[in-house]
Design brief:
The complex is a heterodimer. Chain A is α/β, with parallel strands linked by helices. Chain A has helices at residues 13-20, 65-73, 89-101, 113-118, 125-132, 147-153, 167-181, 191-198, 202-250, 256-261, 281-307, 310-323, 331-337, 341-347, 354-367, 371-380, 386-410, 430-464, 467-482, 489-495, 500-507, 514-526, 531-568; strands spanning 2-7, 26-29, 36-44, 47-53, 79-85, 106-111, 121-123, 136-138, 182-184, 419-422. Chain B has one domain (6-79): Roll (SH3 type barrels). Chain B is globular, with a radius of gyration of 11 Å. The model of chain B has no long low-confidence stretch (mean pLDDT 86).
């Protein structure tokens, strides 16, 4: 049996899902779309049933890709559990009535039942059951109240086959039901609600947004750096390095196979940052450099999401983002990019149109420096004075704004206007939240690791064949004349294709002037994304758009570097 | 010209309420708005606006929604007395 959980967004559907199912939960992508959904299993007496957490939808007349998926999935289910927010019955019943017009058995879970009491809402359950003609079970997903009754009532789900209605008739029917079953007494604004309103007002909202972003940033870096410093680095250095050294001896310390598998030994030792082999850098990059930030970022992101802050942030930044041809929600992948560009580009899937996904992915890979790169910028450029770090970041920010404006004006299509629900603030449910973090991290690992390993392999073969040297010689005149960098910096720029932070590190021994260092850092940051990001771009955008994005990148990096070279000169 | 006492959601002041009279937009806009319960006849209260023609926040059916400025300026509202 296949049970579909359907309902509006923000009704506690996912919490109910994690109550019903165990730990074996799978996230899948709906074929041909960027929409993902979650699957799990539940015990129904002796049998197990499949439970699907269908993407949240307000209507079966789809207005977005996620809603299209939701209405298509409806045909695949045996029973629908319609999760309804009891504190917002008017809006939720519209979808309920649509479901009851279809030929599928429905049971209604009247979730957040506990909140109706202190919000002064009185719902006549018997009357509601009678009017809808299906079982209606009050539930409180966060405490588990009513879940047992809900499961027991799934076999009693029925379809009343309501007559098909037009939209206005359906809303009128919702109005009649509400008049008969719901009675609202006084309602005074709570402390939470005041805070909720403050976070979308211009002044207080702006201050709150800046504070939340600053704290998130610090927390992400703190957790990420702690994981690297206390967990992953010791693991790799103390346990994995000796194994690789033994393997290196077996492979006689050099040669084609050695360089592919282990990479070049640095000073007779495996250096995880510079030995670029499948088992050295190929494992170290995804696990010890990227994963810690992915974990810490998803923790913070999921917390902000479950508390209900993200829609408010989207509202606050919507005006700016629209100037760049984006939508308030594009702030999420953009922020993710400061940790690592790979999951950031993957996260552009949450954006609705192909145009927005292209603009967001291009802007991220050009103007958003990842954590590894930022650490190098702080280390190298910061040593010459804090003002130069400000110049590097300031330049990237200006590029972000100008390039975004150009893309908004030149990429065809339009960006739909913001229209989102702003849920009340809620305390996060740890179980559901950690389950979500785990699924996201797992999804990242499953997608990114094969990509990174494959890329390391290909790059090593190309390097061995001397392809990079040829590129370096070919591009040398541009780098020296236009950007004012020494010829040796060419190799660094080319290596930047593999690893940006390493490339920046290669600028260190070149005795560059401060101006050259600033130009070099900016160009490296903007130039080709690292190979992992590059492959993800290819996957998310397709060949044609990825090539366009790369072209924009090269032109933008050269122009910006050239201008900086002139201005700072 | 809007009738007396009518204005657009974009022009309403924070705290004002009224009844939605008309959605002056194409099928796509009407479809998106009505999915969220914004239909003629609904009570609507403006909570706040953001700077520089940013989204406006409203309360409809006991839920809060953020609506882009362009859409908000095409939602006609009959203000309360």
């Amino acid at each position: 049996m296949k049970i579909l959980l359907m309902g509006n967004p923000n009704v506690g559907k996912s919490v109910l899902f994690s109550r019903l199912t165990g730990v074996r939960v799978i996230v899948s992508n709906y074929p041909g779309t960027t929409v993902s959904y979650t699957r799990g299993e539940t015990k129904m007496g002796e049998d197990t049933a499949e439970v699907i957490d269908v993407p949240g939808t307000y209507t079966l007349e789809p207005t977005s890709e996620a809603e299209e998926v939701a209405s298509e999935m409806l045909h695949t289910g045996d029973v629908v559990v319609n999760v309804v927010n009891a504190t917002n019955l008017e809006r939720n019943l519209y979808l309920t009535l649509q479901l009851l017009e279809k030929d599928v058995p429905v049971v209604v879970a009247l979730n957040m039942w506990d909140d109706t009491k202190h919000e002064g809402i009185n719902i006549n359950l018997d009357k509601l059951r009678e009017l809808l003609g299906v079982p209606v079970i009050p539930t409180v997903a966060v405490t588990g109240e009513g879940i047992k009754a809900l499961v027991e009532n799934i076999p009693r789900a029925t379809s009343p086959h309501l007559p098909l209605r037009r939209r206005d008739q359906r809303w009128a029917a919702v109005g009649r039901i509400i008049d008969q079953v719901q009675h609202v007494t006084h309602r005074h604004h709570t402390w939470w609600e005041r805070l909720a309103d403050a976070s979308v007002k211009p002044l207080s909202g702006g201050i709150i947004a800046l504070a939340v972003l600053a704290v998130s940033f610090i927390v992400v870096r703190f957790i990420g750096e702690s994981l690297i410093g206390y967990v992953f680095d010791p693991l790799f250095n103390n346990l994995w390095a000796p194994v690789l050294m033994k393997l290196s001896a077996i492979l006689q310390g050099g040669g084609f196979l050695h360089d592919i598998v282990i990479g070049k030994l640095i000073g007779g030792q495996v250096d995880f940052v510079q030995s670029f082999g499948l088992l050295s850098g190929g494992l170290y990059i995804p696990f010890a450099m990227v994963l810690p930030y992915v974990v810490s970022f998803y923790l913070v992101l999921s917390l902000l999401e479950d508390v209900g802050y993200l829609p408010r942030l989207a509202v606050m930044v919507d005006t700016i983002m629209h100037r760049l041809g984006l939508h308030g929600y594009a702030i999420i992948p953009t922020l993710l990019g400061f940790g690592c560009n790979v999951p950031a580009v993957m996260a552009t899937r949450i954006l609705e149109s192909k145009r927005e996904r292209f603009i967001a992915a291009t802007l991220i890979s050009i103007a958003i420096p990842c954590a590894a790169l930022q650490a190098m910028i702080f280390g190298l450029v910061g040593a010459r004075g804090a003002q130069y770090v400000v110049i590097v970041y300031g330049t990237l920010f200006v590029v972000w704004i100008i390039l975004g404006t150009i893309l908004r004006l030149s990429v065809r299509g339009f960006t739909p206007e913001l229209l989102i629900e702003i849920p009340p603030y809620r305390l996060p449910q740890w179980r559901a939240m950690l389950q979500k973090v785990w699924m996201r991290v797992y999804g990242f690992l499953a997608e990114a690791i094969p990509i990174i390993l494959g890329a390391v392999l290909v790059i090593n073969v190309l390097y061995f064949l001397g392809v990079f040297e040829a590129i370096a010689n070919f591009t040398a005149p541009v780098v020296t004349n236009f950007l004012g960098l020494p010829k040796e910096a060419v190799t660094a720029v080319v290596i930047g294709f593999l690893r940006k932070d390493v490339a920046l590190g290669m600028l260190a021994p070149l005795a560059l002037s401060t101006k050259q260092l600033v130009v070099g850092s900016v160009v490296l940051a903007m130039f080709f994304p690292c190979i992992a990001t590059f492959v993800v771009l290819l996957r998310e955008l397709g060949v044609v758009d990825m090539l366009k994005s790369t072209g924009i990148m090269i032109v933008a990096a050269l122009i910006t570097g050239g201008i900086l070279n002139l201005v700072l000169g | 010209m809007p009738d007396e006492g009518q204005t657009t959601l974009a022009r309403m002041r924070a705290g004002q309420s009224g009844i939605v009279v008309q959605l002056q937009g194409g099928f796509g806009m009407v479809n998106r708005l009505s999915a969220l319960g914004i239909i003629p006849g609904k009570r609507i209260t403006k909570i706040s606006a953001t700077l520089m023609r940013g989204p406006v926040t409203v309360e409809v059916d006991r839920a809060r929604l953020a609506i882009g400025f362009g859409m908000a300026s095409r939602i006609l509202v009959q203000l309360d007395e």
